[in-house]
User: Which sequence fits this backbone?
C-alpha cells in the first residue's frame, strides 16, 4: 500500500476541499501525459489506480503480429508469449510500463499536469463557495487600498470594494473587520473575482435579518426599504403574528438591535415604520416623524397629496428634501406636500415629485449633494414621542418655504 500517496491525498482533500476521485483522475491523466512524452503517443496507454491502496498499474495495449512495424502498438509473438504463454497472433497483450523508466522531462510534465488540475479545482471550489453567498452579507478584513478601491479579504478569497460602492466619507484601516454585501461573483482564469458593496439597500436588509430573530424565522417581514447610504435609511416592516410588534422587534430592548446595525453602518440613521396596505396610512407612516393632517392617495396614478401643519412643513420635507424623497421611494408614490395654508390657497394643488431625476427608484447610490445629517430625533427607534425641535424648524423653514413657493408658482403656471 502506498501510504505516502494516500496521506498526501487525504491532506489535499481536507485543506483544499478537493475530492479524492478528482485527484486520482489527475494522477491518471499525468501518467498518460508522461507516456505520451516518453513514447511519442498514448492512444493505447491505460492507467488503473486502486482507490483503496493507491497502487497503480500503467500498461500499453499491443497487438501480436509476426513482424513489428510500430513498437508502440505492436509486439512479436515471441515477446508476447513471454508475457502470456497462450498468446496468439492477433491477440491484444497488456504490456506493463514502468514509470521509473520515464525521463526527467516526462516526469516534470506529469507533475505539472497534477499541479494544474489541483489549482483548477481549488479555484472552482472557491468560486462555488462564494457564488452561493452572492446577494448575502459576509464579514471581511480590510487589507489595503488599491488606488481608490479597497481590497477586502473574505477568508479564502479577496474581494474588491470599488469607489462607487463605498459610503462617502468612510475611511478604513488595514486589519479592520467590516460587513459587506456580495454583489457579484465572476469566474476568471486567475480565480473568482468578487465585487462587494457598502451602499446597497440589501445590506441593511440582510443586517436586520441577521440581528432580528423574528425576521429570520419569518414572523416579521421587511416589505420595503429606501436608503441614502451614509445618511439615512427607511424600512417598512409587517408582522404575520398580531401578537408581535414588528417595529418593536426590530428596535429591540432599549434599541439594542437597531443600535448594533447603526454602529455597523457608522452612525447612519434608520427609521423603522409599520407597513400598511392602506396607501394613506403607509405614506403617513413613511413621512415620520412629521405629523400629517391629511393624505389623498391615488393608487392608480401612484400619486399622493399630503397636507401638514404649517410648522411641520420643513420637517415633512426634510433637510434638502431627504425625508420626502425617501418616503416616496419607500412607498412607490409621488408625494406632493403642502402646508395647510398653501393647500387652502391652491385648490387642486399638485406638486411635482420630490424625487429628482438622479434619485430614481432603481438608483440606490448616494448623491454627493446630500451630505448633510438627517434629523437627529426619530420616534421610530428612539422610543420617545416626537416633540418639534424649534431650533431646527426656525433654522430650515425659510429655505423650505421658498422651495414650496417656487413649486406653487410652477403649479399655477401649469
Assistant:
Amino acid at each position: 500500500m502506498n501510504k505516502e500517496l494516500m496521506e498526501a491525498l487525504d491532506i489535499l482533500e481536507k485543506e483544499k476541499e478537493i475530492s479524492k476521485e478528482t485527484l486520482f483522475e489527475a494522477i491518471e491523466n499525468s501518467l498518460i501525459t508522461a507516456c505520451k512524452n516518453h513514447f511519442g503517443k498514448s492512444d493505447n496507454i491505460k492507467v488503473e489506480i486502486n482507490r483503496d491502496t493507491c497502487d497503480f498499474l500503467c500498461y500499453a495495449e499491443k497487438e501480436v503480429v509476426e513482424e513489428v512495424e510500430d513498437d508502440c502498438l505492436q509486439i512479436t509473438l515471441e515477446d508476447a508469449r513471454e508475457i502470456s504463454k497462450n498468446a496468439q497472433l492477433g491477440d491484444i497483450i497488456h504490456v506493463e510500463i514502468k514509470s521509473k523508466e520515464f525521463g526527467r522531462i516526462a516526469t516534470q510534465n506529469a507533475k505539472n499536469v497534477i499541479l494544474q488540475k489541483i489549482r483548477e479545482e481549488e479555484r472552482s471550489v472557491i468560486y462555488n463557495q462564494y457564488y452561493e453567498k452572492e446577494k448575502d452579507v459576509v464579514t471581511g478584513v480590510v487589507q489595503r487600498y488599491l488606488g481608490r478601491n479597497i481590497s477586502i479579504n473574505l477568508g479564502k478569497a479577496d474581494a474588491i470594494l470599488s469607489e462607487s460602492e463605498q459610503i462617502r466619507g468612510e475611511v478604513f484601516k488595514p486589519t479592520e473587520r467590516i460587513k459587506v454585501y456580495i454583489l457579484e461573483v465572476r469566474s476568471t482564469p486567475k480565480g473568482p473575482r468578487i465585487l462587494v458593496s457598502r451602499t446597497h439597500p440589501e445590506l441593511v436588509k440582510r443586517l436586520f435579518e441577521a440581528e432580528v430573530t423574528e425576521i429570520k424565522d419569518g414572523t416579521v417581514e421587511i416589505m420595503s426599504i429606501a436608503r441614502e447610504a451614509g445618511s439615512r435609511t427607511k424600512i417598512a416592516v409587517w408582522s404575520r403574528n398580531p401578537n408581535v410588534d414588528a417595529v418593536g422587534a426590530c428596535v429591540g430592548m432599549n434599541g439594542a438591535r437597531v443600535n448594533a446595525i447603526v454602529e455597523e453602518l457608522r452612525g447612519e440613521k434608520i427609521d423603522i415604520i409599520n407597513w400598511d396596505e392602506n396607501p394613506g396610512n403607509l405614506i403617513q407612516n413613511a413621512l415620520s416623524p412629521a405629523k400629517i393632517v391629511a393624505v389623498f392617495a391615488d393608487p392608480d396614478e401612484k400619486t399622493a397629496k399630503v397636507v401638514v401643519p404649517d410648522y411641520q412643513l420643513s420637517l415633512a420635507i426634510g433637510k434638502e428634501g431627504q425625508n420626502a424623497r425617501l418616503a416616496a421611494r419607500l412607498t412607490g408614490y409621488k408625494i406632493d406636500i403642502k402646508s395647510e395654508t398653501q393647500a387652502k390657497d391652491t385648490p387642486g394643488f399638485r406638486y411635482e415629485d420630490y424625487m429628482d431625476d438622479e434619485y430614481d427608484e432603481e438608483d440606490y447610490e448616494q448623491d454627493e449633494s446630500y451630505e448633510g445629517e438627517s434629523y437627529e430625533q426619530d420616534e421610530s427607534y428612539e422610543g420617545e414621542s416626537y416633540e418639534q425641535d424649534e431650533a431646527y424648524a426656525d433654522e430650515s423653514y425659510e429655505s423650505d418655504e421658498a422651495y414650496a413657493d417656487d413649486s406653487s408658482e410652477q403649479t399655477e403656471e401649469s
User: Anything to note?
Assistant: Confidence is low (pLDDT under 50) at residues 350-414. The CA atoms of residues 230 and 265 lie 7 Å apart. The longest strand covers residues 177-188.
